[in-house]
Amino acid sequence: MSGHYLALMLDEHGVHGEFGCDEPDSAPCHQWCEYGCETGCHHPRNTVEKCQPLELLESDGSDWWDSYIGPDCEPRSGPIIFEWSDDYYAWRYEEQENNGEIEKETMT
Ligand SMILES: [Zn+2]
To answer: Which H/E stretch holds residue 58?
Structure first.
């Protein structure tokens, strides 16, 4: 079960999405390279307070749907999985995890 989720909220301005993280501090998303590498390095890790995929997604100013990489589906709140995609984090719904696609680096 993923500790990451998307919460959708509809109001008069539209549909807002908010990503959340329930992972403990020991989870991979709270471990960050001492040298600031974004992924794939073997440097020592620092424990950071803020979930790193969340931090990056929030800081790049894009809308919650911009980084969605799963198949077409109805938008909904629910558990999600972050995937590193070249130089940014993308996400998909958790239950779409094993749909025959090539294994990528995932952060649950
Ligand atoms: Zn997290």
So the answer is: helix 52-59
Instruction: Please state the pTM of the whole predicted model.
Output: 0.77
When divided into structural domains, the chain yields a total of 1
- Residue type at position 37: C
**SS3 assignment, position 56:** helix
Expressed as residue numbers, the domain containing 52 is: 4-107
Question: Residue 49 Cα, ligand 1 centroid: separation in angstroms?
Answer: 10
Distance 79 CA to ligand 1 centre (A): 12
Task: Reduce the DSSP state of residue 95 to 3 states and report it.
Answer: helix
The per-residue pLDDT for range 16-75, each reduced to its tens digit, is 999 999 999 889 899 888 887 877 788 898 898 899 999 988 888 889 999 999 999 999
Query: Quick check: 67 and 89 in contact, CB under 8 A?
Result: yes
